[in-house]
Amino acid sequence: MLDETDQSLTEAANRWLAALESALSGRDGKSFDGLFASECHWRDVLAFTWDLRTVNGPDRIAEEFRRHAGPASACNFRVDESRTPPRRLTRTGKDIIEAIFRFDTASGPANGVVRLIPDDPPTAWTLMTALSDIAGHEEAIGDHRPTGEIYSRDFSGPNWLDRRKSSAAYADRDPAVLVVGGGQAGLSIAARLTQLNIDTLIVDREDRIGDNWRKRYHALTLHNQVHVNHLPYMPFPPNWPTYIPKDKIANWFESYAESMELNFWTGTEFEGGVYDEDRQCWTARLRLADGTIREMRPRHIVMAIGVSSIPNRPDIPILKKFGGQALHSSEYGDAADWNGKNVLVIGTGTSGHDIAQDLHSHGASVTMAQRSSTLIVGIEPSAQLPYTLYGEGPPLEDCDLLTVSFPFPMLKTFHQQITEQTRIYDRDLLDALARIGFRLDFGPDDTGWQFKYLERGGGYYFNVGCSDLMIDGKIGLIQFDEIETFTDTGLTTRGGETLPLDLVVLATGYKGQDYMVRHLFGDGVADRVGRIWGFDPELQELRNMWVRTGQPGLWFLAGSFAQCRIYSKYLGLQIKACEEGLIGLKRDPD
Fold first, then answer.
1. Which of 416, 393, 390 is nearest to 403 (CA)?
2. N or C: which terminus of the chain has fewer CB atoms within 10 Å of its end residue's CB?
3. What's the confidence (pLDDT) of residue 171?
4. Residue 304 phi, psi dihedral angles, 5° rounding
5. Above 90 in pLDDT, residue 511?
6. Dihedral, CA atoms, 388, 392, 393, 395, nearest 10 degrees?
7. What is the pLDDT of residues 552-570, one digit of tens each?
8. What is the rounded distance in angstroms from the CA atom of residue 587 to the CA atom of residue 582?
9. Distance between CA 551 and CA 86 in Å, rounded?
């Protein structure tokens, strides 16, 4: 074992990094033998491969390093003394040394995280390498603050506001990048691209920036805590509440777009695009707020409308017999309109639970219909366990880098352990739900709610009170397959019972992004892109997310606030690299 009385953790990490550099350069005939443990993982984020990919095992890692070491020209590996120093920690049951390091590549500066098993000499369990900037094209922040004409004092000409209005109008030009969707994904990537001096326009069909949150149901509050939800460059003020109300986040979006000088067209519907292979640009069709059509020719389109934005309305033939109102959760508005009424909510994910609780709180008699098993997690502490890293002490930037450094096999084990712990914390709640007939699950391979989100975008609920209302009988529960038929005034069950209804809410989620691409771009583009979201078992990354795709110039960004903040950086770097001719527009299938 490593003797820490004779050798500091920093020295141990630097020795390992020096050995890695020697192996990469081939100096003195050095090989990768002895650098990696028998169980090991390397995740590269643009630094060597201009891709996001994970490889496992010492032989595969050595093979991939040999393949990419020459073009990358990686050198000057050393612990980054400006960041969280190396630490002795336990990750997923392993005692390790965790160190943040920096190095240089042919493309620019890079950083990474290594987790060493403290043998003598140490061997690497996990390694992550990530490009941080493109040399000569750094973000316009800090020492690289913008000083262009827009900020000059011109007493005889336009001032800053005049120039901003002119820039956002696009009267005489097209943007290099068209971002479709103005939520956390669209704002994050537009902010990144703007700092990289790439002309970017966000379009959103809502009337006001932030309406994608502002128009959602009245009681909505974010279910994860404020410290993980910051947008790039502008953290929330320190007096913000632990859980952010929807209108507060919506108003922040509006001020964020203004502060970051983002070009943003509201009331603008993206109706599709056609790619010109010869000119390497899109013809994008936009329907403006006044109904007129504007065609633009951006080189890149970033779809940033979330996991999806097209409501999933399942075909339920018996529902056609219902004489009352039936609407999708995306159309649900003010619960006060249903005071004293009878409501059935079909679906037991987050939206279904929150809408049911909202209706109950405003005097409606509510029953939930469960179509499939659902993962239930207590809001505290269980739902916050995946974010414990952010409470360990390192600053946000370091926590984000550490988050990126978890390879898929480690991430899966981590969430299985979390799920096991949540079942202990939530035992009384889960047992009570089972007693009333609520069908429970714990995610694929018991990996919990986050893997359910990464695989399918839903299927879970963080309990903020609705589960307790069901347990207490204040909100009813019925299994959907117990419904015999709907009637003009309600429904009847297979057991002969009747339930009067005035409203049915379909909390049935949204169509996948695959459906959206086929709808907006046609079969050819959809077939070239392939599946979107969910893990690719070979690359061990989310499919077609945050990377180049099989369709040149088409990109996807979605996920939580944290995912959008983190991965918008790497998506932005790839688009900048394409613009500067450093990489091609199409992802290498190899």
1. 390
2. C
3. 95
4. -125, 45
5. no
6. -40
7. 999 999 999 999 999 999 9
8. 13
9. 41
Phi–psi pair at 147, nearest 5 degrees: -135, 25
Report which of 485, 491, 461, 454 is spatially closest to residue 567, judged by C-alpha positions. 454
Reduced to 3 states, what is the DSSP secondary structure of residue 311? strand
Q: Is residue 280 within 8 Å of residue 287, measured between CB atoms?
A: no
Could you give the dihedral angle defined by the CA atoms of residues 157, 159, 161 and 166, in that order, rounded to the nearest 10 degrees?
A: 30
How many Å apart are CA 424 and CA 409, to the nearest integer? 23
* pLDDT tens-place string over residues 8-28: 899 999 999 999 999 999 866
User: Which residues make beta-bridge pairs with 554?
Assistant: 301
pLDDT average, residue stretch 375-399? 93
Q: CB within 8 A of 544, min separation 6: which ones?
A: 529, 530, 531, 532, 533, 550, 556
Q: Which two tokens stand for residue 178?
A: 């068209």
pLDDT at 301 over 50: yes
Q: Which helix (H) or strand (E) holds 82?
A: none
Can you tell me the distance from the alpha carbon of 559 to that of 413, in angstroms, rounded to the nearest whole number? Answer: 21
Distance CA 555, CA 567 (A): 12
- CA-CA distance, 175 to 263, in Å (whole number)? 10
Cis-peptide, bond into residue 394, ω within 30° of zero: no
